[in-house]
Amino acid sequence: MPRSPLALACIAVLATVALAACSADEEPGSAKKHSGAENAGRAVAKPITEDLPQGAITQALMGDGEALPEYSLHGDKSVMDTVYCNAQDAKGAPKGWVRGGDASYEYQGSTLNMAHVYICLLDSPADAHAVYTAMKGSEDKPRKPSKPIGDESALFVNPNGTEDYITGISRSGKAVIEVRLSGGAGAGEDPTGTEAMLAATLKRLQQVQDGKPVTATAAQEKAAVAGR
Question: What contacts 70, CB < 8 A, 6 or more positions away?
Fold first, then answer.
């Protein structure tokens, strides 16, 4: 049945209102709230899910000029022994162990005060979580970093009663990272340096996984932490 002119006019008005409402929702200043999934996608960095080769792990480790100020690479980056990816006193490789890498950094040219970074790649996120939990369980008095680093992360100041010794542990997907700053490099009670090294190492792993240039540095991350 043909619609009357009045009915057609009403339909046109309703369509115009609906289109305007949709456009307003898409404007940058719109008050529309995004869904939880969308917010989560913006807040959570892409986890490490690829079976990264040894070269990629080595590339993710920071070199000279990429760690914290006044730190320099001690020797060479190396393929890591499984012992560093295990709980204290554990023997053999942890379940799901694939490969790892580590690097050490001198502080002001001294080996008395150093930083150490360990990257552990496991078969699955479940295996990585078990390793993270075991490593975290060997420490005490955990602190939260200023913002989450990966899927789960924790900082430890003077762990197990050791003075001027700060540790950070993070898991992202099936990768686990540990950072240790010792002596004067630990900066007493300030975990900022450890947090920066941890965050930079994870970003570098993500850049390698995405096939992008590896540009993240600990100095950049420390500046970001200090600016919060």
Answer: 107, 108
Mean pLDDT of 15-29: 35
Kind of pairing, strands 110-122 and 175-182? antiparallel
DSSP 154-212: EEEESGGG-TTEEEEEEEETTEEEEEEEEGGGG-TT--HHHHHHHHHHHHHHHHHHTT-
pTM attached to this predicted model = 0.78
Nearest to 135 by CA among 90, 174, 172: 90
**Nearest one of 96, 106, 86, 99 to 53, comparing CA atoms:** 99
Q: Give CA 183 to chain center in angstroms.
A: 24
Q: Are 184 and 107 in contact (CB under 8 A)?
A: yes
